[in-house]
């Protein structure tokens, strides 16, 4: 029986399967951020008490509707002929007669069907009943599972990001799912599905506030004697604010009790206003549908298509010339003879799977990027996108490990760029690493300015322009020395780096232009490598080690002295700069001050 | 070839003024033993079909294939094993004020810097062979899986000291988190 229960258990099993991987990943000596505790025995102690909140009753349906819909489709689709015969029997009246003659099989049959439906329903109800969550001062905890019980928790101060997802069914029912990311591993620490959208938004705002330390700050400045914020267990949705939540600018930010006082319109501040931390949301950029369609058409799918076509043409031509006696002339003549439209059509069906795959690539690009908006909120850059399934994800600038600006050769005439971000917990692949699916240079600058507000260079725009489009040594970038052109005949003048006071910028590529930016304080460790030939040429490669993500910060074939200088400089930065360390509450002022001081020291030391 | 000077303190990529702490000389026999064992395994794997061929159990391995492959493998193995002592001597580490430097390699050289503040944990590993010689491998982990910082062939006492030292320094740098 493929009812959603099974699906439910599968997701659990996956959740556990991830564990060893995460254990291998960097794990600090202290308590792990996420630990599925299996106290399935539960002897005596109840699995949960009244402090645990239930998710929305429709959750299992929203989760499992595909399965529920698939069962009849499969049943009817599989033996369609039988059902048609049955229909004919019914119309001719034979069926009724047959039932009257011997009702037993029909009773069993319909009883079985009813039982199946009942089982699914009971399964849904049970899985709803057994899924509870609780938000304490330190943790978000989710318990689920009917038979195999699971308890996942994420430490709030280690939460890197909270995503709000709305699959199609959830959008229709105005529900939403929250995903909590922690630093280690590619897996999601805890998934809370489903809540009312308004509830989910409130909870997200609260968790993000706490994860960033902003709430602590507010408490300290405003009501130092107050207890820790009341957990959001009882977070009843504020009546009437659900419908308006579809507008990106009007999302109820920080409207939770815990963040009270930051939303003057809803909670008039009791004391002196907290430090000016409440800023209205600003829309940074959006992707018009026209540009998105253009970018998809000029995207990876087309690039692959062109590549395949070119390869098969050359391959076919070579094969033809080789197999035909008498050289190219004869081959061409034979081609002219053999070639016919009919033949082409007969080949077409074999290409169908590839064509469907190609269309899927296009559709993916379109549906994921549809309606993309980037809004700067208090908690970070809020990205919202999706055609059928919408996702709202918040990228906190303080947790960005690196960003990368990319441009493929097909986008060059249009001046389009893509931006990718590396945030611990997002993993190495997938949509969530996309900071901007397609944008013009202005959009790139706008987004980059939010991520890295202060490059401490005179003209950041010129530097960026140089990074994504420029070549040679202008703008302070390095290049592969001329004597070593043989290593990089095409990208020699593009391959290089530039270190600003706050970030390391690495650019590369001609057909695929890349500019990666890594804040110095994000660098975990560094490595230089040099092989025998490069030693002869006085070159070396530098690699900057970042926490997992899609961005590889590596610059090859650079002048060995430049690499060594950068190595020294970066290790000096990396040694002192720890403000953005993963477990930090990055908004706390003492952290900021401490960091600034340390950086200044490091810079001075570097100059001395 | 510049690679002829494995013990020279300053290869082109080495930072100026760094005195490398080299790993223990006992790591050379360990390297020899594991190298020889590894190559024996390779020869066993490659040699099995040849033996079977010679015994007429299977057939069809032409001489033009087996002889060059064999020669290449033997030369490769000889060079590899001959390089072991120098490779072992090329491994070095140096504790600076804020980070640990690790270097490896003669032909393909690598230099890594791991800031103490970035250390997530320090691991000590010792297989049976290493244990027999009283050695261990010190492995440093940061939040980045790309960090490949390990020092093989450290005397166990020194390894323990290094771990203590690094942990303490890491803690000191992490203080206040």
From TrEMBL, chain A:
List all membrane-crossing ranges: 64-83, 103-131, 292-324, 344-363
Outline the extent of the YdbS-like PH domain: 128-207, 372-444, 493-554
Q: Where are stretches of biased composition, namely Low complexity?
A: 227-243
Compositional bias, Basic and acidic residues, is annotated for 13-30, 210-226
Could you tell me which residues belong to the region Disordered?
1-43, 210-283
Keyword Protein biosynthesis (UniProt): no
Q: Tell whether Transmembrane is among the UniProt keywords.
A: yes
Keyword terms, alphabetized: Membrane, Transmembrane, Transmembrane helix
Tell me one Pfam family matched here.
bPH_2
Q: What is this protein's name?
A: YdbS-like PH domain-containing protein
Q: Which organism's genome codes for this protein?
A: Nesterenkonia cremea
Q: What is the lineage of its organism?
A: Bacteria, Bacillati, Actinomycetota, Actinomycetes, Micrococcales
TrEMBL record, chain B:
Query: What residue intervals traverse the membrane?
Result: 30-51, 57-79
Every YdbS-like PH domain range: 89-165
* Pfam families found in the cross-reference section: bPH_2 (PF03703)
Q: What is this protein called?
A: Membrane protein
Decide whether keyword Transmembrane helix is in the record.
yes
The record's listing under InterPro entries reads: YdbS-like_PH
Q: Which domain of life is it from?
A: Bacteria
| PANTHER family on file | TRANSMEMBRANE PROTEIN-RELATED (PTHR34473:SF3), UPF0699 TRANSMEMBRANE PROTEIN YDBS (PTHR34473)
Q: Which UniProt keywords apply?
A: Membrane, Transmembrane, Transmembrane helix
Q: Which portions of this protein are annotated as coiled-coil regions? A: none
